[in-house]
Amino acid sequence: MIRKMQADGRHRAGIPYLNQEMTNILSAVEQETGDPALAQSIYFGPTALTHIKRLIDMGGSIITDTTLVANDISAELLGNKGAKVLCFIDDPQVVMLAEQRRVTRAEIAVDYGLSLPGPKLMVIGSAPSAIMRLIQRRQREPMSDVCVLAAPNGFASAVQIKERLLDSDLATIIARGKKGGISATVTLVNAILREIHNSANS
């Protein structure tokens, strides 16, 4: 199965290999979801896991587009260096600004998240508009301290937006195609954090 994933990932994602950490993460996702197609849809940008490790070491922020994802990310896997999980989607200021500007709360929440100091992982599990906002912001400014994990599922527009993110130069982890959703996003984030935690403590 690992060989199949490596060949599949190399063909579709344009990366030369899946290292052992990535393989372990994909195996955990497949085991927990019972969905091999989900595991095989996941693309790792070459710097993404390094970015997340740095975030944990520097006490950075994991910022989600929904409280459902934020509440189910395993905070104990973040260690004791100050890394935290945040969600701004229900913040009263975000709600007010979204109404005033006639945009989605997810877009305003992205702006709030990007304003935080330190390295950030932007976790998008349900709002393609948040991905578009990240792409737009990247076109105007450097975002070397940002990694994006994008796994919304659904319609063709979501599939296309994820491909646009793949074509950007942002550090990314993406569930390509129609696969994804809130549950899949939580499973993927926790699998990544668990692998990093286990590697650091082995």
TrEMBL record:
Q: Which residues form the Cobalamin biosynthesis precorrin-8X methylmutase CobH/CbiC domain?
A: 18-194
Q: Which UniProt keywords apply?
A: Cobalamin biosynthesis, Isomerase
Per UniProt, what is one GO molecular function of this protein?
precorrin-8X methylmutase activity
Say which domain of life the source belongs to: Bacteria
Q: In which pathway does it act?
A: Cofactor biosynthesis; adenosylcobalamin biosynthesis
> One Pfam family, short name please?
CbiC
The cross-references to InterPro entries, in alphabetical order and at most eight, read: Cbl_synth_CobH/CbiC, CobH/CbiC_sf
Q: Does the keyword Transferase apply?
A: no
Q: Which GO terms describe its biological process?
A: cobalamin biosynthetic process
The record's similarity note reads:
Belongs to the CobH/CbiC family.
- Protein name as it appears in the record: Precorrin-8X methylmutase
